[in-house]
Structures are given as C-alpha cells and as structure tokens.
Specification:
There is one protein chain. This protein is an alpha+beta fold and 767 residues long. It folds into three domains: 281 residues, no CATH class; 123 residues, NADH Oxidase (3-Layer(aba) Sandwich), CATH 3.40.109; 309 residues, no CATH class. It has 23 helices and 26 strands. The chain has a four-stranded antiparallel beta sheet, sandwiched between helices. Strands 11-12-14-13 form a four-stranded antiparallel beta sheet. A four-stranded antiparallel beta sheet has the order 15-18-24-19. Strand 20 and strand 21 form a beta hairpin. The two termini are 52 Å apart.
Length: 767
C-alpha cells in the first residue's frame, strides 16, 4: 500500500477558524477543504461550480457511527438493523451542521450553500446528466477531494480513522480556503473484499461494469462501477434480500417485486459494516461477527474516568434543553431485570438523557401536532445520547445508543411533576462512570416581571439560533383578524392523502377540510402575548435555486425542511422556559391558519407564507404584493415559528417604514403562477399601518406546490415530466385523476418551491 501524504500546508487564519467552528462548536468528527480545481472533471450538474459558478472551496464534514452501533447492528441480518438506526439521526445531525456552518460563513461575509446529506436525488438523470440516483453533489467524491478519505472498492469514501463508518455533508463557499492534502490512492483500502463477500444483493459481484475512474489533481482513484438499482434493492427500496434477485436489476422489476412481495425493511449496508482499514481492523467473534476497529486512544487499566470526561458527559444536554442526565451501573440495572450486556457485551454503565414534557398537549386541532413536544424532545434526547456516545468513544470506550432499551431503562426515573412525563434516550458504555441519583430535580420558579421574561426569552431565542425575534400583545391581532375575515373566514379545501405505501402507485384519499381563520386565543386560552422567531435561508441558496449549470432544486428543498426543524427546536426551548416560570405556551407554524405546505422529501413542510401575519404584527417586516413577509435584513428569505403564551411580555412596534416600494410597479410574482392562484386584493391593518396583498386560492396553489402536479413548481429539475394544468374549478375527481399520474418512485421525494417568491426581486436578482 502507498503511504498517505504527510505534507500539510499552513492553514490561512480563516481556514483555521472554519475548522475550529466545525469541530468544536458544531461537534463534527472530521473536517477537510477542497479547492474548486479538484472538481474540474465533475459533471457540470453534479459539481459545486455548477451550483455556485464563483465558488472557490468546498468544506466537507463528517460525523461517525459509533462502533457499537455498527458492531451490534445487523448481526442477524442486514435488514434487522437494531441500534444502527442511529444513522437516521446522524443524517439529521450532519444536515444541521452543514446548515449552521453556511449561516456562520454568511455572518463572516462570504457566500455559502449547504448540501443535504442524503435522499434528494435525480433518480434517472436530468437533461445531459445520465447518472442514476444523482445528488446535487456527491459527498463521497467531495470527501475524497477534501482529503478526508479515498475510495474503497465498494465506492464508499473510507477514512484512515474510521473506515466507512461516517456520514458526510458539504458546504460550497466563495471563501478562498487552504485545501487539505489529498490521501494517496491505495493507502486506506487494501482490497480485502470482505464487503464483496457479505453484500447480499450482489451489488459488488454481479453486474459490475468495470471501474469508475476519478481524477483529482495528479491522482487517480477508482471504484467498482456497480448497478445502482441492484445496490438499492434492499438499501433504498427495502426489498427482502432473501428473495431471488433478478440477474439484471432494473427500475421496472424493482417496482414489480415491491408490488408482489411488499417491503421487509431498511438495510444496514454490509459494505459499510464490514469496511475497516487494515491498520485498524481486528476480529473478536465472541463480541460481534463484524470486524472491530482499534481505537486511537485506549483507557488506562485501573484508572478512574477523568472528571473532565465525566462532566462533559453530564453536561452534554445543556444546549439541547435536556432536563436530566442520569447515570446508572450495570449492577443497578440488573436488579431491575435489565441485562445491559444484551445491548453491548462489555457494558458497565447506562447514561439516560431526558427532557420533561406535557402528558397531553391541548388544542390538537390547531397546534403543530399532539406529539409536538414529545417528537422534538425525543429528537433532542437521541442527539444528546449520540454526542455522549461519541465523547466516550473518543476516549477509548465502547458505546451503543439504543432506543430499544429506553422504555425499560426509564421506568426507575423519579421526581416527574404532576401532569408531566418525559422522553429519553440511553447510551450503554464500557466506561465505569459514577452513578447519579435517579431523583429528578425539576424546579419551577414563578417570574412575573414582563421585563425580565422578555429579555430572557429573546436571549434564549438568539442562543438557539434565531435571526429575528419579535413580540406582540395578543390583542394586536384583533385588527388583523377583522381585515382578513372576509377573505379567510371559512374556506373549504380539498385535502389528499396517499393511502399507498412507498414505491406503490398513488392511491388518493380525498376529503374536504373546512379551514377557519384563527386568533391567538384559538391556540391557547387566556393568550396575552405572541412570540415569533425567524430563521433565514442562506442567500446563496436562494440565488442558485433552479439556476446556473446545475439547475439544483435540492438545495432549496433542504433549506425548507432544515429551517423548519431548527425553528421547532427553538420554539421548544422557549416553551419550556415559559412553563418553568409558571406560564402556558403553545407552538404553531401558522398562527392565523392562512398558509399551506410544500411537498418535500422529508414530508410536507410549512410554506413561505406561514406565520406571515404573526411576523407582521411583531414588527419583523412588511407584506409584499404576493403576501410574503419582507424583512429589512433578509427580505423574504426567512421562515417563522410562533409561540403563544399567557405571559404578559413587552411588545415590539410594528414596522412603520415601507419595505416594499418595488411592489407598486412589479407583478412578477402574480404572473409567475401557472395555476393562476392569486385573486383579489385584501388590505391588512394593524397599529396604524396598512399593507395590501393578493389573496391566494389555496386549492389552486396546493395543486402545484403541495401535490406536485405542475413540474415547473420544482420537480421538473429532478426530471419529472408530470405537468397537469389545474382546471378552472378543481373537483375531488380532478385531483384524484391527476394524482394517479405521479411517478411511482419519485413521488416519495418531491422537491417543490414557491415560484412566486422566487420571482420576487426582494428574494434574489431577477434575470
């Protein structure tokens, strides 16, 4: 094997700053930089320069699978993944890291576009792009280009430190950064072919069509050119790997087999599970049937865990709203009938991270969901466990995160207040950590001062990442309600749900929903104040969406769901501090219920009009002609979430200055709508200011952006051909007939935008 290059250039000061932020603040495990020249041979539609023509660098970050999750996952069968399900949370974590780094780069004066970790693809190419399952850019190629890895025979980007046990995300930037030295081809992968031996789909042994050759600077990397449809048999389409697999796997026989046999479940890729570099690889069949990884640090025998490590473990949930981190020994748990070695053979301790939430959330008809706090709290607790597991593993201990154990382990927690419950996640580890009490100290402190509560809430929102925060009295919405009631009072909207499973032909179920205009009191009885938080979308993302050589839509779809996810986390943190101070709070993505949702690969997401009137009332901006909220600093490139509370808070003034002078002589937004969804004007009045906007016919708007029936609302850039024009009056039969034409595979991951908002000169320059 060739030796890895030892030569490192001295990083520029800003490059060092970027790496420090990624590693220390965002908790990435690896970070590398590629200059744009390293992508000279990339296909234009899968290249960073195709997305951002003036890009100078690509930053690639990685987070690791903890060894225990790989070693304990998929032991019986690749489709019984067990603790390997942490991969889903790793995807959301690396998405979050990339998004936050892009915003940080913007704050430092450079342009940046974050790229989604996975699952946004052009399934069958697009225009000149012939590759199947083509992402915006390949993180595998980017990781090799950024000096983090080399290609293995299996096509994975394998690192010297962790092999294939990593997930990547990339950020394209205009910053001129110091590139990381490339890893020499052949210095990590020793062609052991263990991955080939264990691949049940045969993707590494059948239908191999030579080599993919990748040229980067003066180096040449290669990996097997496999049939990606065969690779996706179990990994993407969840087909049973024990079924007879056709000699030639195609899209058509995949759909046929899904229809005939159904789906068994997601696959833990054997190419990843068995890929450990030779220098780190060893076997212990009494522990696991996968190769194990030698750790770079080995704990000293007989020496207690350092207090520094202990406190890092105990404080891991501090920024994720955790209410407790409880540590219990294997002996303690065994007395409760919990066998920790069944989760991790050498486990000595369990670490449980939890967040206290309401037993039952009220106003389920108008709030985000009955399980809002449970879902967001559960996500944060797993992310806390993931951080704890990685911290322990960096210090040489074995770990596994296990959601399967949570119900058993949580049974002994005491001290939960009446009317409350909690969600939690567990880490098992070989580290012997000192036990903590299992009595939770959940303290509430009544704080009546509107001044203090206001200052603290805004500080919490800012610390959580909000770009803007505004507050209004609930009474301020009375005039807005009066203005909007004639246009939005009660509306009948057809709502379609797909009864079919993934990768089956669409089976629409259509019902009529009566949508009412809402006030703060409809979300929370006794509402006194409304808090609105905003999070921006990177400007470069908006500038590049469906433009330049790449014509990327994935960058927008990713920003859409990532901003919504981060806003939900911010709202939970604000909700919790209010509840700890004796108040009630409810969270909503659209306070007045006048907006809708977009079709998105991560499920339907709040559209660009959500919470526009709440943001107007709290002084964050003014309304444009199409009804989007325009802010002084970010224009319409920002999304909002609202917390309604019975706490009396200090209010912000509405914006009195005009922010939309271009609207007077511009109708680009109205003309761009292919479904003619814009109707008559309505005037909105609040605290002495008045804005006019055109009312959107929600049914016509949903036809395009919610139900993906007009490809030009985004999906054409994925290669969709579907373009059904909305009839003059849309009936349930019209919607049913049109939905049945959606593509069987691609319909699962639609990427829609709001064409009207993208046509606005406040959003981006118009060509």
């Amino acid at each position: 094997m060739k030796e890895q290059s030892k030569e490192y250039l001295i990083d520029s000061p800003f490059t060092s700053k970027v790496k420090n932020f990624a590693l220390r603040e965002l908790n990435a495990d690896l970070v590398g930089v590629a200059n744009i020249g390293r992508f000279a041979h990339a296909p234009a539609m899968m290249s960073p320069q195709g997305i951002m023509p003036h890009a100078k660098s690509v930053i690639v970050m990685a987070v690791t699978h903890t060894d225990g999750c790989v070693e304990m996952g998929g032991m019986k069968h690749p489709q019984e993944i067990g603790p390997y399900n942490i991969q889903y949370y790793m995807n959301t974590r690396i998405d979050e890291i990339a998004y936050k780094l892009a915003l940080w780069l913007e704050d430092h004066g450079v342009e940046a576009i974050p790229i989604v970790s996975s699952n946004i693809w052009r399934y069958k190419g697009y225009k000149d792009l012939k590759e199947h399952f083509a992402p915006d850019i390949s993180h595998m190629h980017a990781a090799v280009s950024a000096g983090l890895s080399e290609f293995g025979y299996n096509g994975l980007a394998i690192t010297p430190e962790y092999g294939a046990h990593v997930r990547y995300a990339s950020v394209i930037t205009s910053a001129d950064l110091t590139p990381t030295p490339l890893i020499e081809p052949g210095s990590v992968c020793d062609n052991c072919m263990i991955c080939k031996k264990h691949c049940l789909s045969g993707a590494l042994s059948k239908e191999i069509d030579g080599w993919n050759i990748v040229k980067i600077e003066d180096k040449e990397y290669r990996y097997a050119k496999k049939n990606l449809w065969r690779c996706a048999w179990g990994e993407h389409f969840d087909l049973d790997l024990d079924l007879p697999i056709p000699e030639k796997v195609t899209e058509e026989n995949i759909i046929e087999n899904v229809k005939k046999h159904g789906m068994r479940g997601g696959e833990m890729g054997s190419c990843l599970r068995y890929c450990v570099p030779k220098a780190l690889r060893y076997f212990d069949k009494s522990y696991t049937n996968a190769p194990r990884r030698k750790k770079h640090m080995v704990p000293a025998e007989g020496v207690p865990v350092s207090r520094q490590l202990l406190e890092r473990v105990r404080s891991a949930g501090a920024f994720k709203a955790m209410d407790f981190v409880v540590i219990k020994s294997a002996d303690f748990l065994s007395k409760l009938g919990i066998n920790v070695s069944s989760y991790l053979p050498d486990a000595k301790t369990a670490v449980i991270s939890g967040i206290i939430v309401d037993e039952r959330e009220e106003n389920t008809d108008v709030d985000i969901a009955v399980t809002y706090s449970h879902a967001v709290g559960g996500y944060l607790s797993v992310q806390t466990s993931y951080d704890i597991a990685r911290e322990l593993e960096r210090n040489g201990f074995s770990t596994v995160t296990s959601t399967a154990a949570d119900a058993d382990v949580m049974n002994f927690i005491k001290g939960i207040p009446a009317g409350k419950t909690f969600v939690a996640s567990t880490v098992f580890t070989s580290a012997e950590l000192p036990e903590t009490s299992d009595e939770i100290q959940y303290k509430t402190e009544i704080v009546k001062s509107p001044e203090k509560n206001t200052v603290d809430i805004k500080a919490i929102a800012e610390e959580a990442g909000a770009d803007l925060t505004g507050i209004a009295p609930a009474s301020r919405f009375d005039s807005i309600y009066k203005s909007l009631e004639p246009a939005f009072g009660k509306r009948e909207v057809l709502v379609a749900k797909d009864k079919s499973k993934r990768f089956y032909a669409v089976e629409p179920e259509i019902s009529t929903e009566v949508r009412k205009l809402l006030k703060p009191e409809d979300h929370l009885k006794g509402a006194k104040s409304v808090i609105v938080m905003g999070l921006r979308i990177p400007k470069a993302t908006m500038d590049a969406t469906a433009r330049n050589n790449a014509e990327s839509i994935g960058i927008y779809a990713y920003a859409q769901y990532e901003s919504a996810k981060l806003l939900r986390i911010m709202a939970l943190k604000v909700k919790k501090i209010l509840e700890k101070r004796g108040f009630s709070a409810a969270v909503t993505h659209d306070l007045m219920n006048t907006a809708s949702v977009n079709g998105n690969p991560r499920g339907e997401q709040p559209d660009a009009f959500s919470n526009r009137f709440a943001a107007l009332a709290t002084g964050l901006g003014r309304l444009s002609k199409c009804g989007s909220l325009v802010t002084p600093k970010y224009g319409p490139n920002i999304r909002f979430i609202t917390v309604v509370t019975d706490a009396e808070l200090l209010s912000d003034n509405v914006k009195t200055e005009s922010l939309t002078p271009l609207c007077e002589d511009c109708s680009r937004c109205l003309k761009s709508c292919s479904s003619n969804a814009f109707g008559d004007k309505v005037k909105v009045e609040v605290d002495g200011i008045s804005d006019e906007l055109h009312v959107i016919d929600q049914q016509r708007c949903d036809w395009n952006k919610r139900y993906s029936l007009s490809a030009e609302e985004g999906n054409m850039y994925l290669g969709w051909k579907l373009d059904e024009k909305a009839p003059e009056k849309i009936s349930a039969e019209d919607l049913d007939k049109a939905l049945r034409k959606q593509p069987t595979i691609a319909k699962y991951r639609p990427c829609n935008f709001e064409k009207c908002v993208l046509s606005c000169p406040y959003t981006r320059s118009q060509i």
